[in-house]
Amino acid sequence: MARTALLNVMVQAAMKAGRSLARDFGEVSNLQVSVKGPGDFVSAADRKAEKIVFEELSKARPGYSFLMEESGVVEGKDDQHRWIIDPLDGTTNFLHGIPVFGVSIALETQGKLVAGVVYNPVMDELYTAEYGGGAFFNDRRLRVANRKEMTDCVFATGIPHLGRPAHGDFLEQQRRVMLNSSGVRRFGAAALDLCFVAGGRVDGFWETGLSPWDMAAGMVIVKEAGGFISDLDGGQDMFTKTSIVAGNETIHRKLRETVNGK
Question: Reduced to 3 states, what is the DSSP secondary structure of residue 156?
Answer without folding.
Answer: strand
